[in-house]
Task: inverse folding
């Protein structure tokens, strides 16, 4: 045990959990309603891929969710980053925007979704507005802090080398803040993703989050399990993708 | 005029201007909030937007006094705030009590770390609401499933932060303590734990924020009290004034929670970022 | 008072890694010196000086040979061997006084005694008035002084210092050299001191050990008179004397030659 490498320990642990799962479901210790076995999940996945759930296949549900996530995230992160950069440069603007940002950031997104639904209806508009509002403060705070944390010598040096304020902003301030902006974007995307799933569960009629809830209501826990696994793996994949992009774009970060 | 950390204009030897006393920065914040209130008042209450859609500030204020005086559908506002905070405290507290020791153990014991980490890594990015339906299936619609949900929201964040905090302790600091004659258990208590404390505390703050968001979602989905329940119930009765009131309360509550933890953080780990 | 072989390295080798990728960080180092000596180890990067110090501190187990102090082999870190690193490595959650008293407290020493010694060393290092502050409120030089005071409060038999002044500015560095010199003269303590600065080594050391890299080994040992002679002399006067400059150039040319051979 002591000499086993980490990956082997992890592998053994995964194997142990999987075999416990198989054993428990095979022996009928737990009803498959509560914990479907591997076979049930596999069949459920096949059905979701072939026939779909209530008119849409699993990839279609997932695609709808990701489209919402993408739209809300991109608009919110772009607007937030622009606002944050401006807040980083101007203390006055920061003082003016901060109360709203600070209010919005810890606010549970689903609470204002209800209001947005009253205003915009239950369709895409309310969900995407909510995602926009979820991403915006996170991106804004990251961009502002990114600008604030630039070492002053770097700005002085750029000015001393003859850069105009506009040049300093585009050639020094923006790239210097980029690592924090991208880290903030990754954080925002995680929040947007989790928020959307919650929104689909509470007020949806399509999308993977809604599929889980609906399947759970009709006691199709095999579908619900497949949905949860897909959500988890997709979330990890999105995060990895963004991390990879981040490392490529700001290869100088932390050096 | 941009005021960067270094005011750029000052670099460019600008001609001297008559100094004017600038407004203090908080005044800008107060001004912005006041402007927002005026704008809200101007468009709301039937002036531009129907009052049912966007009640005026005064109507929201009246809703507050009404709820304080008469309660909301048989519950008082304080009861609802307290049941939200109670759920939050229960799930989060449980996660702290179990997550910190587990994370510390994983950070110290390589085998434990490698065996458990993959579970944490899978749980962490999973949106909590996605498995809410399973928890309801397993534990029923009562508070048990909500406590479990909040626990599972905070737990992986706390475990990961505690383990990372422990692994991040500088080797040389441990060596310094050993060379001064500290025993392994003394090194753990007096050096490793305090060194990991800033990161553990950061984890607690993130976990509490996540749990706060989740508790409201859970109450929207299935509850018979709490601020989240008030929001969804008010929406059924088209009481937008109550919804806005609850949103304002939730925002203030969120700020207060974050602020309280930050204050605690500054007192308990005053050396954060300074070693 | 002085006993030969107070600190002994017998054929000490340290190898990192295994097989073809193994690096011989230290090859059969043989060194013995007496109680009260101030031994400075110099040499280019990768010559194994820090490795050598780590084996004496007990942080690193040699792959061959033995290290011993006062006749007993070194088996691990112990309070009889005080250590000061290049970074002060203080405990930021403890006050200055608590940092200094850490060792005695951990060993469960009599409180009154420990307090007395903490006060003595904090006064000696000029930190007494800052005793209730936190380390991050001190300047870099004061932090390093506290690290030294903390090691001394343990009354170690030998003080091991790994480039303790390497991160300080030139002026502070000279002051620290002078203060350390005074402490050493007053206590007669045994010190092993690693540095990149040949001048520092020649000023402080009763002996300079020159090491060469790849594999790390001891090249030459040079006894020096300045540390014992320079009783109350001003540091600048010592360092500008003809004898001092000659000794400094001799050590420098050894290291210089090494780099050209490589």
Result:
């Amino acid at each position: 045990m002591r000499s086993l490498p980490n990956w082997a320990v992890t592998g053994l642990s995964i194997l142990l959990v999987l075999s416990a799962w198989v054993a428990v479901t095979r022996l009928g210790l737990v009803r498959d309603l509560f914990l479907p076995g591997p076979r049930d999940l596999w069949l459920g996945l096949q059905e979701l891929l072939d026939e779909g759930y209530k008119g849409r296949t699993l990839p279609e549900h997932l695609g709808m969710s990701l489209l919402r996530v993408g739209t809300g995230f991109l608009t919110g992160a772009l607007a937030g980053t622009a606002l944050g950069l401006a807040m980083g440069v101007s203390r006055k603007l920061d003082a003016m925007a901060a109360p709203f940002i600070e209010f919005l950031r810890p606010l549970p997104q689903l609470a204002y979704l209800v209001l947005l639904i009253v205003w915009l209806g239950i369709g895409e508009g309310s969900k995407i507005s909510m995602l926009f509002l979820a991403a915006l403060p996170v991106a804004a705070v990251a961009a502002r802090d990114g600008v604030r944390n630039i070492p002053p010598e770097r700005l002085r040096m750029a000015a001393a080398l003859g850069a105009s304020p506009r040049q300093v902003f585009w050639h020094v301030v923006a790239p210097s803040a980029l690592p924090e902006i991208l880290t903030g974007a990754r954080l925002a995307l995680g929040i947007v993703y989790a928020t959307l799933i919650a929104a689909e569960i509470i007020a949806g009629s399509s999308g993977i989050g809604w599929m889980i809830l609906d399947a759970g209501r009709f006691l199709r826990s095999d579908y619900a399990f497949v949905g949860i696994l897909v959500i988890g793996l997709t979330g990890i994949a999105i995060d990895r993708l963004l991390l990879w992009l981040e490392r490529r774009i700001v290869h100088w970060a932390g050096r | 005029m941009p005021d960067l950390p270094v005011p750029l204009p000052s670099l460019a030897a600008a001609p001297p201007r008559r100094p004017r006393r600038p407004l203090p920065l908080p005044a800008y914040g107060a001004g912005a909030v006041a402007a927002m209130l005026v704008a809200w008042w101007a468009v709301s209450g039937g002036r531009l937007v129907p009052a049912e859609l966007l009640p005026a500030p005064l109507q929201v204020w009246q809703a507050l006094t009404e709820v304080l005086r008469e309660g909301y559908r048989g519950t008082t506002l304080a009861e609802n705030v307290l049941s939200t905070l109670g759920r939050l405290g229960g799930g989060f507290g449980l996660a702290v009590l179990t997550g910190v020791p587990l994370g510390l153990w994983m950070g110290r014991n390589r085998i434990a770390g490698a065996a458990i980490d993959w579970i944490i890594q899978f749980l962490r990015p999973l949106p909590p609401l996605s498995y809410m339906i399973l928890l309801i299936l397993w534990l029923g619609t009562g508070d048990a499933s909500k406590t479990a949900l909040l626990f599972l929201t905070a737990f992986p964040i706390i475990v990961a932060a505690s383990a990372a905090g422990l692994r991040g302790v500088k080797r040389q600091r441990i060596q310094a303590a050993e060379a001064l004659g500290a025993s392994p258990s003394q090194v753990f208590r007096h050096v490793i734990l305090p060194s990991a404390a800033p990161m553990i505390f950061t984890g607690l703050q993130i976990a509490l924020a996540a749990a706060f968001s989740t508790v409201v979602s859970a109450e929207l989905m299935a509850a018979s009290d709490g601020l989240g329940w008030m929001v969804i119930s008010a929406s059924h009765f088209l009481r937008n004034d109550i919804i806005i009131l609850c949103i304002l309360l939730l925002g203030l509550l969120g700020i207060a929670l974050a602020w309280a933890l930050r204050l605690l953080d500054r007192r308990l780990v005053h050396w954060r970022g300074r070693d | 008072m002085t006993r030969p072989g107070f600190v002994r390295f017998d054929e000490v080798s340290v190898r990192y890694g295994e097989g073809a990728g193994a690096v011989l960080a230290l090859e059969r180092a043989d060194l013995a010196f007496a109680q009260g000596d101030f031994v400075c180890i110099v040499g280019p990067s990768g010559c194994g000086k820090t490795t050598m110090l780590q084996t004496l501190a007990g942080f690193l187990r040699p792959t061959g040979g033995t290290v011993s102090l006062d006749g007993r082999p070194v088996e691990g870190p112990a309070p009889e061997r005080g250590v000061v690193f290049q970074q002060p490595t203080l405990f930021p959650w403890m006050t200055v006084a608590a940092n200094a008293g850490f060792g005695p407290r951990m060993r469960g020493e009599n409180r009154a005694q420990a307090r007395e010694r903490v006060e003595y060393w904090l006064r000696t290092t000029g930190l007494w008035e800052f005793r209730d502050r936190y380390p991050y409120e001190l300047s870099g030089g004061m932090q390093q002084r506290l690290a030294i005071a903390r090691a001394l409060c343990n009354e170690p038999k030998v003080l091991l210092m790994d480039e303790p002044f390497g991160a300080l500015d030139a002026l502070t560095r000279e002051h620290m050299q002078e203060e350390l010199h005074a402490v050493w003269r007053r206590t007669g303590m045994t010190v092993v001191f690693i540095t990149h600065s040949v001048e520092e080594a020649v000023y402080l050391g009763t002996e300079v050990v020159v090491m060469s890299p790849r594999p790390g080994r001891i090249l030459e040992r040079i006894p020096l008179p300045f540390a014992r002679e320079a009783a109350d002399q001003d540091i600048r006067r010592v360092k500008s004397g003809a004898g001092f400059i000659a000794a400094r150039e001799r050590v420098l040319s050894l290291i210089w030659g090494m780099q050209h051979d490589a």
Remarks:
- Chain B has one domain: 70-268.
- Chain B has eleven helices and no strands.
- Residues 184-221 of chain B form the longest helix (38 residues).
- Residues 70-268 of chain B form a domain with the MetI-like fold fold (CATH 1.10.3720.10).
